[in-house]
Amino acid sequence: MFDCYNRQISYLRISITDRCNLRCHYCMPEEGIPLMSHDKILHYEEIAEVTREAVALGIDKVRITGGEPLIRRGVEELVSMIVAIPGIRDFGLTTNGIYLEKFATILKESGLHRVNVSLDAIDPGRYAQLTRGGDVKQVLKGIEAAHEAGLTPVKINCVVRNSSEEQDAREVREYCRENDLEVRFIHQMSLEHGCFTTVEGGDGGDCSRCSRLRLTANGKVKPCLFNDIEFDIRELGIREALLQAINQKPEKGSVNTVNAFNNIGG
Length: 266
What we know:
Shape: globular
Radius of gyration: 17 Å
Number of helices: 8
Structural class: alpha/beta
Strand content: 15-25%
C-alpha cells in the first residue's frame, strides 16, 4: 500500500469502456453522451500492464468498471490476464447486471472473485423508468447466476434520490435480505452542481478515507473521481502517470458525474 500525503492507495478501478446499454436518468441524458473513438480505447494488454505496475507499487485491490464492462468483447480474456498478476487479493467487477446471467460462470472460471450489481428498483415498471427501458428480470437472473457461480459476496449498489427509506430502496433492501446479498445506498449526485455524499454501507464518497485510483478507458489515471485532474499513461508512461496520481494531494473540484456512480459503490 503506497502512502503519500497521508493518503493510502490500495485500490485501482479500471474503466474498460465508456459505452453502456442503459440510460439511467441520473447518469446520462436520454440521448447519451459523445463516445470515445475506438482507437483511443486501451487494449487489454495495456490495461494488464498498468495493473501489473500498480500492483508493484502496492495496490492489491482491482475493480473492472465501465460504462458497462460486459458489453466489451472478450472481457473474460482481460479477467484472465489480470488474475495472472501476483499480489491481487481482491478482484471484482461492477455491472448493471443485464448480461450477467450469460457471463457469471465464464467470469468465475476466468478467475474473477466477485461482482457489484447496480439495482435501483425491484418493481419492473420503476426499473424501466429509471433506466429508460431496462428489464429488471434480467438483472435478477444475473444476480442469481452470480451467486450460484460463487462470485460472492454479491454486493448491490442502489442509488437513492433523498433517502434509503424511499419505497424503491426499501424494496431493494428487503430483496437483499431475503437473498443473502450485501447492499449499499449511493445518494444521487447533482448533475448540475456536482454534489455528492458518502455511501451508506460502504466507504465510497468519503474523501478522508479514499484509497482509490481510477484508470479511464482511454488511459488517464485519475486520483479523484470528483475533479478533472488526470495523468495520461501514453504521454507520461505507465509508472510515471501512476506515481503522479498517487502523489497528487487530494482536493475537491469540479465533478465529472457521467458514469461515476458505478465507481463509488465499493
